[in-house]
Amino acid sequence: MNDERVATxxxxxxxxxxxxxxxxxxxxxxxxxxxxxxxxxxxxAEGTVAHALAADAVNLAMAGLSPxxxxxxxxxxxxxxxxxxxxxxxxxxxxxxxEISEQYDLSYKNVYVEQKISIPDIDGDDTTxxxxxxxxxxxxxxxxxxLDFKYGAGVPVSAIDNKQLKYYLLGFYLSLPESVRAxxxxxxxxIVQPRIPTGEVMTQESYTPEQIEEFHxxxxxxxxxxxxxxxxxxxxxxxxxxxxxxxxxxxxxAQQQLEIDxxxxxxxxxxxxxxxxxxxxxxxxGVLLNNVEIMHKYLDSLMNYGYSCLQNGIKIPGWKLxxxxxxxxxxxxxxxxxxxxxxxxxxxxxxKTPALKSPNEMEKLLGKARVPAELWxxxxxxxxMARDNDTRPGVEPRAIxxxxxxxx
Length: 408
Ligand code: SF4
Known about the structure:
The protein folds into two domains: about 20-225, Lambda Exonuclease, Chain A, CATH 3.90.320; about 235-350, no CATH class. Helix 5 (about 165-175) crosses helix 7. The chain is globular. It is built from 14 helices and eight strands. The relative contact order is 0.10. The protein is of the alpha/beta class and about 400 residues long. Mean pLDDT is about 85; it is low at about 1-10 and about 400-408. Helix content is about 35%, strand content about 10%. Strands 1, 4, 5, 6, 7 and 8 form a six-stranded mixed beta sheet that branches. Strands 2-3 form a two-stranded antiparallel sheet. The structure holds iron/sulfur cluster. Iron/sulfur cluster (SF4) binds near residues 27, 234, 241, 243 and 249. Iron/sulfur cluster binds near residues 237, 243 and 250.
């Protein structure tokens, strides 16, 4: 691919939410404008809806009110149902904010929802470095909190050394008058990810003003290095990069890792030249596994790009567009209830049995101390593989590994 870059504004937009990417791969900022347009994605639309409802719910809670959630919300062409799972996730986030607010006896004036922040770059331009924090809480003479609500369930995000959170904390910190800043000894970044299947729903990390100032120096210096000549540097951050389908660096990286020439991929796969798992040494396996996520993402981006080609009328041999499978759903639940009741059906017949909330949710009713441990258990869901830096402790294997049945 021709790596020539088009002229772009002297000051690229270097947002907080993608700081992990542009601070490592400066070239991505200049490659992304060439990437195929992002297609509407139901997961992104769900996230947008959850965030908007969560912001409203925080504002209402600070005014002493409870939200009335709609049944569904139209977003980017999707009809997103506001499920119990979404409502529960929002409540976990709102409860966390209210807990902090009650702890310090704060009013709505101290709680900033969907707050825009900006930081002057090396030239003093404050349109380059910017972001919108889900929630910032300024506790006078005490601390600043920034809470980031993650609705996604697939990839756990930790607050530990999280650049996005530090970026928001810095933005809040700089927005305060110097005299107020001098009275703030602590800044706390918090991730609330209620739907995460394993690991912690809430993680946090505290910083001193000196540590945030150090981050400030790093941020401004990193931003200054994002120029049109900046390199394309692949890594974990590629997962969220829109330029993946056209990125020569990530293609080379993937190619090197699996030792496959993608141009000859069909031939290679037909010849079964992919390494057989049982013949790979543990050392080589470690290298391959370290790159599994990037390979997944690369293959996803191939699928997405193929879909966008088909949508644009470009033929791809062996592939076609089809309608997605869908299940019937009620148009208007009130009308449905009325209809079935008129036909003599009882509530028991038409409603599902109510389900108990989880131990985590029930603890909110009585407090942790009043929910005896004899009432709950943690089912053994088996073991899984995680990276060394996962916060869970490593455990001994429970069963002898059976290599039989591994085929390629
Ligand atoms: S895919 Fe990765 S290497 Fe390529 S531009 Fe994006 S972040 Fe950089």
